[in-house]
Amino acid sequence: QDWRGRSKVEIFQYVFMKWLLCFCIGIIVSLIGFANNLAVENLAGVKFVVTSNMMIAGRFGMGFVVFSVTNLVLTLFASVITAFVAPAAAGSGIPEVKAYLNGVDAPEIFSLRTLVIQIIGNISAVSASLLIGKAGPMVHTGACVASILGQGGSKRYRLTWRWLRFFKNDRDRRDLVTCGSAAGIAASFRAPVGGVLFALEEMSSWSALLWRIFFSTAVVAIVLRALIDVCLSGKCGLFGKGGLIMFDVYSENASYHLGDVLPVLLLGVVGGILGSLYNFLLDKVLRAYNFIYEKGVTWKILLACAISIFTSCLLFGLPFLASCQPCPADALEECPTIGRSGNFKKYQCPPGHYNDLASLIFNTNDDAIKNLFSKNTDFEFHYFSVLVFFVTCFFLSIFSYGIVAPAGLFVPVIVTGASYGRFVGMLLGSNSNLNHGLFAVLGAASFLGGTMRMTVSTCVILLELTNNLLLLPMMMVVLLISKTVADGFNANIYNLIMKLKGFPYLYSHAEPYMRQLLVGDVVTGPLQFFNGIEKVETIVHVLKTTNHNGFPVVDGPPLAAAPVLCGLILRAHILTLLKKRVFMSSPVVCDSNTLAQFKAEEFAKKGSGRSDRIEDVELSEEELNMYLDLHPFSNASPYTVVETMSLAKALILFREVGIRHLLVIPKTSNRPPVVGILTRHDFMPEHILGLHPSQSRSRWKRLRIRLPFLS
Amino acid sequence: QDWRGRSKVEIFQYVFMKWLLCFCIGIIVSLIGFANNLAVENLAGVKFVVTSNMMIAGRFGMGFVVFSVTNLVLTLFASVITAFVAPAAAGSGIPEVKAYLNGVDAPEIFSLRTLVIQIIGNISAVSASLLIGKAGPMVHTGACVASILGQGGSKRYRLTWRWLRFFKNDRDRRDLVTCGSAAGIAASFRAPVGGVLFALEEMSSWSALLWRIFFSTAVVAIVLRALIDVCLSGKCGLFGKGGLIMFDVYSENASYHLGDVLPVLLLGVVGGILGSLYNFLLDKVLRAYNFIYEKGVTWKILLACAISIFTSCLLFGLPFLASCQPCPADALEECPTIGRSGNFKKYQCPPGHYNDLASLIFNTNDDAIKNLFSKNTDFEFHYFSVLVFFVTCFFLSIFSYGIVAPAGLFVPVIVTGASYGRFVGMLLGSNSNLNHGLFAVLGAASFLGGTMRMTVSTCVILLELTNNLLLLPMMMVVLLISKTVADGFNANIYNLIMKLKGFPYLYSHAEPYMRQLLVGDVVTGPLQFFNGIEKVETIVHVLKTTNHNGFPVVDGPPLAAAPVLCGLILRAHILTLLKKRVFMSSPVVCDSNTLAQFKAEEFAKKGSGRSDRIEDVELSEEELNMYLDLHPFSNASPYTVVETMSLAKALILFREVGIRHLLVIPKTSNRPPVVGILTRHDFMPEHILGLHPSQSRSRWKRLRIRLPFLS
Q1: Which of B26, B221, B515 lies closest to A4 in CB terms?
Q2: How far apart are CA A104 and CA A185, in angstroms?
Q3: Cys-Cys crosslink for A543: which of A215, A614, B244, B554, Cβ 3.0 to 4.6 Å?
Q4: What is the pLDDT of residues B518-530, one digit of tens each?
């Protein structure tokens, strides 16, 4: 209701500022992304060059010491700053952003401190050669930037800007955070369309339909491809290659036919199984870590150091297991590579030979992905090396994710997927026309599909990464299959992590038992409400004894004949009123003079994690006996449902409209005007099944495999 | 409520069928799309080959006669079948699908008849060299296929299938139609991801946020591109080209730098202005056509024929204006081309020369686009030819769209945009590093942005068309600018057409004056409601005298102490009850025996345009005096709002949850339990401003330019 009073100038300011903010988010996020990459490449690059030079000089022991000590120091730095300065910066950040956009406000997740630690911590953790990614933290960073800009700076550090006062509400801030997270993905993979789709698919409630649309279009892509294969052999009259507008500028590359569908199906199934296994193991490991973390901060840092040392040993030691390969005569690059990246690492090998496992494992993740995706290198890597690399990545990334440092999952998953994709390609050998680089790309797609269960955005991100749209039909098939297979086993990785963190995430689909229940069945506890003109003492008492965030305001007999619902008032707004101390000595409706003392900004939403507390408000005995008129400050048109509404339908309303409090009104008129208030906690399966054990889950358990398909 | 009784087997059937349907939609739509292209290419191809052969033999007059008569016959065929068999198939079909997904059920739009005419009519109209596209009709075709499959076949032609009985409800059918329309775009451009985005952007209410997300990611893409330009010159240490994962496999092509941003901005602005001009003119022409069409079907067909003859004259005559060009010595293709497509049409020219205008204009649209988009042809077309081609396309497509035949807008807009893009490129000449083919692509993007105002999906469709992801940053800029510029002038083309057709389309954003109004302010007319147990006579009378589709059911004094709202019953369900004649002689609650006579399918939603009418129900005098218990058949949990809810908030509820009837309940308890019922018509600006002229638009008119930016 603060909106109505806005003048035209203010509306213009608002619109202009919103665009300007989006622009600033884009600029800042891309600068951060670039700086992040620059720093990682240079830090890790120098480390690898120094170590390699020592090894060329034969000083292997010294090389190992330098390598592992550098890694340890970087890891220690990352975990110490994360653990002591901003614990909210640990992990991927995507679950936090997702939960925030769903309506769950975790404390501190978007503070300036978190942002800074997220950036620095991620740079040093990735430079430490830990098997973690930077995409997740970039998404979190983007969301932080957006949130901080939207708040007009960080209040704690006095960096505020008055023009931004319009954005202090949930709706605008959510929009900005969505933009920020999309910008984060765009900056980490240079994939702008992928970023948009990521935000839509992962951050909103639309995924069910999106997936089905995607399925339809995938079928179209495949059938057309097959039909055009037929026509290319000249059986379609004047049709030739024309008609379906498509400019096959690069058709010389990536040729494939219907016969290649079988290996692609195989990859999809394997990816789905491995992906769900990955999720299962990661969930277990994180639970174990949580158990360790309860013992104190020291344990967190010790664990990070242990994993760093273990990683260093593996990365340094494993390549010695691989035999040296003679350099191919027709190599396009220098062999062995002396510098940093490249396909042919010399490692311990004699001149003219290279160590293929070192090229993969003793390298930054980005370079490893490049090596795996590269084409025309079918005979460069050997079964043993790729298999060792896959196993290492699979387990190391599971153990590395949970450490107290900003750590993403995208890159490890891509590396792991690419390695087993390439392995499958090598096993199939000459039975398939596809080259091994292509298999690696498809393997990455299948593993992404199996763990993260995103289809459209993963597909576009990978296409934007490889810049080859001709892969599209195959990639779509792989993703759909791996997602379907994996959905049969468990939930997607981010949902598992959110559940572990205890976020009350609201899913878009209603569970079947919600159809059997009415709204009235889940309303619990005594309802706390205020009269339109309420005694200050009562207000303070209620605020102190409950932790609700919204209270219905009801007009009683003196003001209305029968009790009437006036609106809903938020705890934060009441606190602002109490702080202002605009009390009246008698219960009368307040006049416009009193109202004029308030400006809309005072009721604006505070930055995350910085809400006022009732304990901070000190009132005298005299003030406690005065009255407060809540009418002008309550939301006069809250969303309501009748108590006989089915719970499933109420959930749709709650989810689609994106509200925090839903008032339940009675069916018959001879009862109080409000019978309860629903929040997201009331829709949690645990809560509902706790109240109604008869609607036991067991009855539905057997349907679990099929439920993910239900929209 | 028919859902509660479902068994597990039925749920499995449902899920399985839904996926199977999506699969079938994909298969059928791609087959139709392929057949469409095959037919058009062969029909138009034979026509062009025959005509060209005659011209090579010097028989120009004969060539013209063959050309124009073929075109006329094809146009006549298309317009006659459209006008007489299925008038709903005329036009692009996208506005109809969009309106349907918004909740507007136009009669016959998804019938089998419309589908068949749509396919055949579009093939013959496009083959007739009219300047119309096939993407729009393909979208409509996809939606028809989806809807017919969802209904389980067409009842009129007795092609029904019992397994599909589950899909006879709004929600499922809308989902399927969305899939179908995405499949349509995917099939016409071989652009699956583009299809998904098209469905999301154009068909849903999400576009506002989508656009803003897109803006953020565009900024990221551009900044990163610029920074990498800097790094390519070797100033970033070990960074090189690495870090930001991106495999520039094809980087030899499409190189561009920051300096090329200026021409791109220019293209965006020009595209925006031309696009809004195009929309303005098309709107006027369609209004004029509507005026002519009111005179009868004959006029419709005559108009189509006139346009066909005019088009034939232009296409055949204009190339004679262009001077013959000598064939370039280093031409990659045969010159002049003798066959059908290719860059060098011989036309009237002597051997060794070609007519550049004929290559563009005397060709199918697809081939013209290919010629315009082709690179390394900077000196092949001349100013005059491209300009003539642009002007012809611009006006011809405006006049061609409105004829009574299935006619799309995508392809004409792409052709027009590509021609002026190329023209701008030629004017800039050596001042830009970009080649003219690239300018053509960007021109097409800007014109699409200016007319259709879709950003993300247009971008992806064009990328999928040209298979060159490196164009992405420039294309994003062009689209954002042209959309912004054009939004300052008028609405997007599909919204204009929908308004012209009178569809009550519900926009996702609330107009500012809606914030000032309460729900109670727009509720009109006397409310018709039924008692829980109602006399048949009353029901029939109310159904005959009103045309409401939903009625609240209220329990009066005999059954409840005070009037209580029981639910909402739909006209269609009442009609089913009346037809069954399960009446009771006295007003008592009906028992389970009566209920057992009904199966859920009987209440399923009928196919579009095939609803029962009250006039068809004949009841005897005795039956009219009997009673009907409406309780078991009404929706017991309808969505409700309190009358003091702000109209803007009610609109959000209405739009997001996607409902058709919203019950308004009173604030105080001493009034009847329902005070009104809101439908989409009550949210139309015309209706609201008619009721409240004081909230005149003039006050807000000056804000119109800015309003599209408001979400």
Answers
A1: B515
A2: 22
A3: A614
A4: 777 777 767 777 8
Confidence of residue B164 (pLDDT cuts 50, 70, 90): low
List chain B residues with CB under 8 Å of A252: none
Q: Choosing among B52, B179, B196, B253, which should be mutated to test the A contact, i.e. which has the most A CBs within 10 A?
A: B196
**Which residue from A188, A196, A656 is facing B657, i.e. has the nearest CB?**
A656
Answer yes or no: do B209 and A178 touch at CB < 8 A. yes
Give the distance, in angstroms, between the CA of residue B218 and the centroid of all CA atoms in the same chain.
Answer: 25
DSSP characters over A84-122: HT-GGG-B-SHHHHHHHHHT---TTTT-HHHHHHHHHHH
Chain A hits for B238, CB-CB cut-off 8 Å, are 41-42, 45-46, 49, 340
How close A90 gets to chain B, by Cα (Å)?
A: 22
How far apart are the CA of B91 and the nearest CA of chain A, in angstroms?
21
CATH of region A8-203, choose from 1.10.3080.10, 1.10.10.10, 2.120.10.30, 3.40.50.300: 1.10.3080.10
| Positions of chain A with pLDDT under 70 | 1-11, 152-169, 204-259, 329-343, 375-378, 433, 467-470, 508-512, 525, 557-561, 587-613, 668-670, 694-711
Strand locations in B305-407 (E): 325-326, 353-354
Q: Which residues of A touch B245 (CB under 8 A)?
A: 189-190, 366, 369-370, 465
Residue ranges of domains in chain A:
8-203, 206-244, 245-296+323-501, 507-523+643-711, 531-636
DSSP string computed for B170-185: HHHHHHHHHHHHHHHH
Rounded to whole angstroms, the Cα distance separating B688 from B679 reads: 12
If you measure CA to CA, which chain A residue comes closest to B466? A247
The reply to whether B261-501 shares the fold of B8-203 is yes
ipTM of the complex in this document: 0.76
Token digits for B416? 């027009």
Say whether pLDDT at B657 is over 80. Answer: no
Burial class for A13, CB neighbours closer than 10 Å (0-12, 13-18, 19+): middle
**Cα dist from A326 to A323, A331, A356, A381, whole Å:** 10, 11, 10, 12
Length of chain A equals: 711
User: Closest Cα of chain A to B667: distance in Å?
Assistant: 7
In this prediction, residue B287 has a pLDDT band, given cuts at 50, 70 and 90, of very high
- The topology under which CATH files domain B511-523+643-711 is CBS domain Like (3.90.1280)
Contact yes or no for A224 and B34 at CB 8 A: yes
* Contact between B644 and A652 using a beta-carbon 8 Å cutoff: no
Q: Which CATH number applies to A245-296+323-501?
A: 1.10.3080.10
Report, as an integer, the average pLDDT of B648-664.
Answer: 77
Q: Which of A196, A653, A657 sits opposite B213 (nearest CB)?
A: A196
pLDDT tens by residue, A246-299: 444 434 444 556 567 788 888 999 999 999 999 999 999 999 998 888 888 888
Chain A hits for B189, Cβ within 8 Å: 244-246
Res. B162 pLDDT band, cuts 50 70 90: low
Cα separation of A664 and A667, whole Å?
A: 9
> How close does chain A come to B297, measured CA to CA in Å?
33
Interface mutation target, options A37, A43, A172, A213, chain B, most CBs of B under 10 Å: A213
Backbone angles phi, psi at B406, to 5 degrees: -65, 115
Q: Which fold has domain B261-501?
A: Clc chloride channel (1.10.3080)
B496 pLDDT higher than 90: no
pLDDT of residue A159: 47
- The per-residue pLDDT for B4 is 44
Helix, strand, coil shares of chain B as percentages rounded to 5?
Answer: 60, 5, 30
Q: Which chain A residue has the Cα nearest residue B372? A: A247
